[in-house]
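re: the backbone from monday

yeah here it is again, tokenized this time
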């Protein structure tokens, strides 16, 4: 087989395989994006106003399969304007219960379940404190 014939033959094969890859890519781009579970879409993060209404209310945090109760102690707003909403939440977990700093599922009846990064912030009369910082951009 001459070199020219070989290049033309293999070029055609490579070109057709590339087209099938492009077709698969096109299908992938037009298909709906699946979340963690089929049909699950992460809820939008609640803003500081939603949390202000929930101060002193109980939340459930899920460090595993079993939930743990915690209380929202305060909402500290850094700024709220047309550009965004920056704030910190302080939670308390009963004395004797601790969480490692990390991402947890946090749930409340009014705002649903969200994944939040909780960082240990010390101890106090209400128990162990945890802080969650938010910077929501509009």
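seq for it, each position gets an aa:
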């Amino acid at each position: 087989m001459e070199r020219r014939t070989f290049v033309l033959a293999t070029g055609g094969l490579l070109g057709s395989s590339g087209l099938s890859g492009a077709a698969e890519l096109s299908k992938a781009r037009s298909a709906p994006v699946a979340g963690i579970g089929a049909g699950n879409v992460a809820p939008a993060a609640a803003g500081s106003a939603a949390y202000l209404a929930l101060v002193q209310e109980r939340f459930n945090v899920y460090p595993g399969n079993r939930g743990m109760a915690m209380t929202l102690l305060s909402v500290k707003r850094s700024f709220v304007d047309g550009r965004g909403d920056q704030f910190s939440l302080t939670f308390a977990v009963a004395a004797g219960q601790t969480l490692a700093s990390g991402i947890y599922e946090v749930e409340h009846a009014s705002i649903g379940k969200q994944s939040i990064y909780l960082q240990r912030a010390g101890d106090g009369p209400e128990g162990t404190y945890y802080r969650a910082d938010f910077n929501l951009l509009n």
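The chain has a mean pLDDT of 79. The CA atoms of residues 56 and 72 lie 5 Å apart.
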